[in-house]
Structure formats: structure tokens, C-alpha cells
Design a protein that fits this description.
Largest sheet: 8 strands, parallel, barrel
Structural class: alpha/beta
Strand order of the largest sheet: 3-4-5-8-9-10-11-14
Distance between the termini: 45 Å
Strand content: 15-25%
Radius of gyration: 19 Å
Order of helices and strands: EEEHEHEEEHEHEHEHEEEHHEHH
Helix content: 25-40%
Number of strands: 14
Shape: globular
Length: about 325
């Protein structure tokens, strides 16, 4: 029997929860942008498991619960103590009347449900209960507050304290907040008792603003960061940057495509690829525990595993910094 592949793990500080350095982002298998059939979704999750990934991230938002259902079905018979599953609270799923033919928030799924923002204590408990029902799992290991950009007070004063209760009761192993901005995540670390934050798209080869606020704050307070969307929604995902590449979920403007192509050229000079550098870059920072990448096919899984395994020489980072394409790691 072939021994199981294992990837390195890093701990969410002070919790004992261990994340593989490459994690599986389960939004695409729930029809992000375009539908993914059941067979392909299952094969994608299976390929990630076979490649050694043991950290899987989902949310009710992704495909109106479809991501949680598909992930739970695929993981249900796996060794539970070998896998870390994270999900999120903040969007309760409720019946939409009348239903839409298609969801109106990026997912190619029927619009029979809608999302209702709720960061209250009751909303946290109801959301977790619904997540456990959809996944069929006995627990969620990490629970994030999802996108509370316009809801600081309720999230900080109600949602996080409810998550603290769940953590202290042993219901979840770690708690945190996931957002597309670094400034408020740094504030959550400073002012609340979260263990980890998930930062999407703001600490990448193209953007390092989080080095000013979030990353030093995480180190100072002994908290962990999970870096998501490290390809900036597609622009850094391939060794050759196509004209159709997307950036922040829209067509990439010419100047961003040009910068990505310059980065790709320097990577080639150093015997590596743009996707490999994009995955390895955040992991260089001591606060970063894992990089989570969204995947929709077994081919994407294998490509990302290969990029994660690829050697990226230190000289690349020095060269990129010298050329002004990358800020030094602080």
C-alpha cells in the first residue's frame, strides 16, 4: 500500500490546531462563476486529500450551502482527527421568495435561498448548527466571522464573544475572522480574543499592504494568519499570464497584467514559476500558518500541489526586492 502523502503543518498559535501549509478553498467546487458537477467536485476533494492536504475551508456563503454539503460528504469517512475543517458565520441562509433561477452573488446555483447578515450570538449558534447539519460532520475545527466590514460593533461585541464561549466549551478548536482587508483584521487581533485571521488577496506578490498593519500586529500578539486568494483571483495562477486573467474577480487591467508578467519573467530567470512564488511568498512570513487556494478540478489541485512542492530560491526574493517588485519581509 502506498504511504499517505503528508504536507508540512503549522499550528494556529496557542490552540494546538495544526494546518497544512497548503489548504483547500472550497468555494469553486460550489459553482463560483460557473457550475461544477457533483462528480468533478468529489474528484477534486479526493485529489487534494491524496496530495496531502488536510486543511479544508468552506462557508455557508459558498454556493448557498453547496460547498459545505459537498465537502462534508467527501470528508465524512476520512479519519476525522487527521483533518481540519473551517467554516464561517455571519450569513444565515433563508428561503428566498420568490426564488431566482440563479444565485445573484457569483455562484452558478439555483437561487432558492438568500443570505441574511447576522453577527449576533443567536446568529452564530444558528449558523454553526446549520453548518453541522449540511456537512454531517461532528464538529468544525475553526470558525471564522465572515466579512464583517460594515458590522464591526456587532461582530466584535456579539459574534466573537459567542465564538469564545464555543472555544472555551471545546466545541471548536480555534476562532477567528476572515476578510478581504487587513486593517480591520489587525483591529480584531488588538481588541478581541481571536486566535487566527484569514486575509484574502491582500498579502500577495502584487500587494503587501498587510505588512504595515496586520502582520506585525499578529506577531506582537502571538496570533496566526491564513493567507487566502494568493493568486489575486487568477492573475498569478499560471506561469504565463493570459490576456483574460482576472484580478479581484474582474478582468485584470493592463497595468496589473504587465506587472504580473514582469513577476513571471523574473521567476523564470530563477528557475521557478509565478504560481510557485505566489504560494511560497506568504509562507515566508512567521505569522502565516497556511495558504488556502480555491480549486475546482483535480487538474488544478495537482497543479497547485506541484507549485507548493517546487523549490523557490531565496535569490528570487532578493532580486524582486532589488527591482522594486516586492517589499522586504519585515
Amino acid at each position: 500500500m502506498t504511504p499517505a502523502v503528508t504536507l508540512p503543518r503549522r499550528e494556529i498559535r496557542r490552540t494546538g490546531v495544526q494546518l497544512t501549509t497548503l489548504g483547500f478553498g472550497a468555494a469553486p467546487i460550489a459553482g463560483l462563476y460557473r457550475a461544477v458537477d457533483e462528480t468533478t467536485a468529489r474528484a477534486t476533494i479526493d485529489a487534494s486529500w491524496e496530495g496531502g492536504m488536510r486543511y479544508f475551508d468552506t462557508a455557508p456563503h459558498y454556493g448557498l450551502g453547496l460547498s459545505e454539503r459537498r465537502l462534508g460528504e467527501a470528508l465524512r469517512d476520512r479519519p476525522r482527527d487527521d483533518v481540519v475543517v473551517s467554516s464561517k458565520i455571519g450569513r444565515l441562509l433563508v428561503t428566498r421568495t420568490p426564488p431566482l433561477a440563479r444565485d445573484d452573488e457569483l455562484f452558478d446555483v439555483p437561487g432558492d435561498l438568500t443570505r441574511r447578515r447576522d453577527y449576533s450570538r443567536d446568529g452564530v449558534l444558528r449558523s454553526l448548527e446549520a453548518t453541522l447539519q449540511r456537512t454531517g460532520l461532528d464538529r468544525v475545527d475553526v470558525l471564522y466571522v465572515h466579512d464583517p466590514d460594515e458590522h464591526w460593533r456587532e461582530a466584535a461585541q456579539e459574534a466573537v464573544p459567542a465564538l469564545v464561549e464555543l472555544r472555551e466549551a471545546g466545541v471548536v478548536g480555534a476562532i477567528g475572522v476572515g476578510m478581504n482587508q487587513s486593517e480591520m483584521l489587525a483591529r480584531f487581533i488588538r481588541q478581541t480574543d481571536v486566535d487566527v485571521v484569514m486575509l484574502a488577496g491582500r498579502y500577495t506578490l502584487l500587494e503587501q499592504g498587510a505588512a504595515d498593519d496586520l502582520l506585525p500586529t499578529a506577531l506582537e500578539h502571538g496570533r496566526s494568519v491564513v493567507a487566502a486568494a494568493v493568486f489575486n483571483s487568477g492573475l498569478l495562477a499560471r506561469a504565463q499570464v493570459p490576456d483574460t486573467a482576472t484580478y479581484d474577480y474582474q478582468q485584470a487591467p493592463p497595468d496589473m497584467r504587465g506587472r504580473a508578467r514582469l513577476l513571471a519573467s523574473v521567476c523564470r530567470e530563477h528557475g521557478t514559476t509565478l504560481p510557485a512564488a505566489a504560494i511560497h511568498f506568504p509562507l515566508r512570513h512567521p505569522a502565516v500558518a497556511s495558504v488556502v487556494v480555491g480549486m475546482r478540478s483535480p487538474e488544478e489541485v495537482r497543479r497547485n500541489l506541484a507549485a507548493h512542492a517546487q523549490h523557490v530560491p531565496d535569490e528570487l526574493w532578493t532580486d524582486l526586492e532589488h527591482r522594486g517588485l516586492l517589499r522586504p519581509v519585515g
